[in-house]
Design a protein that fits this description.
The complex is a heterodimer of chains A (209) and B (242). Chain A has 209 residues and is mostly beta strands. Chain A has three helices and eleven strands; from the N terminus they run αβββαββαββββββ. Chain B is built from five helices and eleven strands. The chains are: A mainly beta (209), B alpha/beta (242). At the A-B interface, loops of A face strand 3, strand 4, strand 6, helix 5 and strand 11 of B. The complex binds flavin-adenine dinucleotide.
Chain lengths: 209, 242
């Protein structure tokens, strides 16, 4: 299986060797039971009474929720594996939040079939782009609880996007807006050399991978 | 364009402190990097088992394909003890890079705000690349480095930093140690705090171009304190090692 050369004297710890787990750890990733943090800047603190979340797009109505309204939407609890481009993978992470299917069901998306991409934005202006097909049909959530507890600010609280089948930079922290777009518009990391799509199992870390 | 895995030979190793070692590679097809970027290293065992880790580049862009990293030995780590204890001059390793286009600083970049570099432990590595790069270029603004380590013996590049500071009146270096009370010590002996920033930075401006690097807890603490001090979050770039 290897391309590449043998590193003299390297045996490796193989903590990933449990057979059931092995298939779940993408190439180049290692399993951790910690929860490291990746962000480009300081952690913003967003107070719940000023929190809002908005969805908009050309030709569809704009919808906005405050925190109370957001918590009143149907909530899902689920367990998924997550993969950060900085090489760690965390298995069986437990979350609670609102499926994007629920959010989009409030919009008449059928009336705007040309909107095939989304831009997810955070409160600081950070963005990530995703194809619409990757955030519907049970593939994406806006989460606000991790491991049964309120999601902390360093991990994106009050609420973050979670798209577990792509590298975690797509799962925008401190989410406050989703814009549906006709064209794919590279976001923050996608504009500085990271892969436009970011499938961990294809090891799409950097542009050209 | 794809970032290819390349085979690079270790041409020199430098034991920087008890826990850290620099590896200098000759990377034949190196594409010039910016100070602050990193490389990925991939190790392969005899049976094909592979692991990858990221390491910041400590050499300045001006050194070209002589690319240096500095690795801190993490007890029980899978990769770092291999790099610090086993790899020697002449070893060949696989790497690719340069990677990362955000946590970077270019000497000729405008606007020329003063640089404020804040390092915790091995977080000094990408900031050292910036300081080495700055030293090799004409510059028109000041720079402050605040570097926190556990003890004086853990300070990486100590002599070089003192040299740079001595010859360059526009660079101010402040060492901080958190677990030692050394005698005859000019630096601080506590964790970074707001008062420290006030004393070091003064009241002239809060308009810095800030780079913070270190462990997550260090970066979080430093970024929060700087905002309290008055630095705008847009001017703060962070890199967390884990
Ligand atoms: C962008 C980037 C740049 C980096 N640059 C550098 C660099 O310049 N120099 C450098 O030494 N490292 C750097 N790192 C960290 C490096 O990639 C590895 O995580 C580190 O060397 C540990 O790997 P390991 O295989 O030895 O430990 P692992 O086997 O991965 O971990 C062993 C144990 O140590 C813990 N651990 C992992 N990393 C750290 C850490 N950094 N500090 C303390 N405990 C840890 C783990 O949680 C685990 O419990 C960088 C990381 C990133 C993401």
């Amino acid at each position: 299986m290897t391309d590449g050369i043998i590193s003299k004297g390297f045996t490796g710890r193989r903590r990933n060797s449990g057979l059931d787990k092995r298939d779940r750890i993408p190439p180049g990733q290692y399993e951790t039971d910690q929860f490291p943090v990746l962000s480009a800047g300081p952690t913003p603190r967003v107070s719940l009474d000023r929190w809002t979340f908005k969805v908009s797009g050309k030709g569809i109505e704009t919808l906005e929720w405050n925190w109370k309204e957001f918590l009143a939407l149907p909530q899902e609890t689920f367990t998924v594996d997550i993969h950060c481009v900085t090489k760690w993978t965390k298995l069986d992470t437990g979350w609670k939040g609102v499926s994007l299917d629920t959010v989009f069901s409030k919009l008449n998306l059928l009336s705007a079939p040309n909107l095939q991409y989304i831009v997810a934005k955070d409160v600081t202006g950070y963005t990530a782009n995703l194809p619409l097909k990757d955030v519907i049909n049970g593939k994406a959530w806006i989460v606000h609880e991790f491991d049964g507890k309120t999601l902390s600010a360093d991990h994106g609280g009050p609420a973050r996007l979670l798209v577990p089948h792509l590298y975690l930079w797509k799962s925008v922290k401190w989410l406050n807006e989703i814009i549906l777009t006709e064209n794919d518009q590279p976001g923050f990391w996608e504009s500085v050399g990271y892969h436009n799509y970011g499938d961990p199992f294809l090891e799409q870390r950097y542009r050209g991978d | 364009m794809k970032l290819k895995w390349q085979i690079a030979e270790v041409t020199e190793t430098i034991q920087e402190t008890a826990q850290t070692k620099s590896l200098i590679f000759d990377v034949p097809e190196w594409q010039e990097h910016f100070a602050g970027q990193h490389i990925d290293i991939r190790l392969t065992a005899e049976d094909g088992y592979q692991v990858e880790r990221s390491y910041s580049i400590s050499s300045p862009p001006e050194n070209g394909q002589k690319v240096a990293i500095t690795v801190e030995r993490v007890e029980d780590g899978e990769v770092s003890p291999y790099l610090t204890d086993i790899v020697e001059k002449g070893y060949k390793l696989e790497l690719r890079g340069p990677i990362g286009g955000y946590f970077v600083w270019k000497a000729n970049q405008t606007p020329t705000k003063p640089l404020l570099l804040i390092a915790g432990g091995s977080g000094i590595v990408p900031l050292m690349s910036m300081l080495r790069h700055r030293n090799l270029n004409p510059i028109n603004s000041g720079a402050v480095l605040i570097y926190s380590a556990k003890a004086t013996a853990d300070i990486i590049y100590y002599d070089e930093l003192n040299e740079l500071t001595k010859k360059d009146g526009t660079l101010k270096t402040v060492f901080v140690v958190t677990r030692e009370q050394p005698v005859n010590w000019q630096g601080y002996t506590r964790r970074i705090d707001l008062q420290m920033f006030e004393e070091v930075l003064g009241k002239m401006t809060t308009d810095y171009n800030v780079f913070i690097c270190g462990s997550t807890s260090f970066v979080e603490a430093a970024a929060d304190l700087l905002q309290e001090f008055g630095v705008s979050p847009q001017n703060i770039k962070t890199e967390r090692f884990g």
